[in-house]
Design brief:
The chain is α/β, with parallel strands linked by helices and 127 residues long. It has one domain: Rossmann fold. A four-stranded parallel beta sheet has the order 2-1-3-4. Helix 1 packs across helix 2, helix 2 runs antiparallel to helix 3 and helix 4 crosses helix 5. It starts with 9 loop residues before the first strand and ends with a strand.
Length: 127
């Protein structure tokens, strides 16, 4: 067994992470077997942006695949996330909500977004 490809941990996938896995980035290969958590917002952002590059049917099928990994967003998540957003305006709303949920669930937030690179509880993987 290869430790690098057998991760069984749970991660919150931000939109960037979903893209990198779907597009086959080798640096994200080791995350393809882990438990995925995300939100409707990240999935909507993924669907919209991928439709700029691929056909609707293919994108909708990929989106459907990740739909079962969506977690509920609580009022407290939104409030805490918007506190974070006010001090980090460059971060997207879906991603600050996801970061907040990852902290609540005590799982790592998987991203390649440089705005999160130095933050606690982040697994930062860039191309």
């Amino acid at each position: 067994m290869n430790e690098e490809t057998d991760i069984k941990e749970t991660y919150f996938f931000d939109t960037y992470a979903i893209f990198e896995v779907v597009l086959g980035n080798p640096k994200y290969q080791k995350y393809t077997n882990c438990q995925i958590i995300t939100t409707t917002y990240n999935l909507a952002e993924f669907n919209y942006n991928l439709k700029k590059e691929k056909n609707k049917k293919e994108v909708d099928e990929l989106t459907k695949k990740y739909y079962n990994h969506i977690v509920e967003v609580k009022l407290e998540d939104i409030q805490e996330a918007m506190d974070l957003k006010t001090t980090n305006r460059q971060l997207s709303i879906p991603d600050v909500i996801g970061y907040t949920i990852a902290k609540r669930l005590k799982i790592k937030f998987l991203t390649g977004d440089e705005g999160f690179e130095k933050m606690d509880n982040v697994e930062y993987v860039k191309k």
